[in-house]
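Example 5.3 — Rhodanese-like protein
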Amino acid sequence: MTQTITRGIKALLQEANREIETMSVADVKAAVARGEAILVDIRDPRELEREGKIPGSFSCTRGMLEFWIDPESPYAKPVFQENKLFIFHCASGSRSALAAKTAQDMGLKPVAHLGGGFKAWRDAGEAVENVEPKAKS
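Solution (predicted structure tokens):
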């Protein structure tokens, strides 16, 4: 039997983009520089090692997002309890739109995402730092 998907990725992204703020590279850079925002990188470790990261960004893989946001979770991270604007980003902006919507739906606020993601940041000539692979034990 074939699955019937009633709300595909296009619908989910349209909904997310209607409900969350999308910020430009310049606006993200300014908000972070003013100390008003935390930039949350939701890419996986392989992406970080391959492409680098935005200096000062906080890494949280998409798969742990809900667990790290919820203060009742045993995996909760204090960074998500700060009174800041949380700006999510991924490689190109799709996963971060969904992540920002999920965070907002959980009650985290304010939230936004970086339009165009890490690619937009890099293409704008902004700083990128290398991420070294973690040593295997």
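Remark. The longest helix spans residues 94-106.
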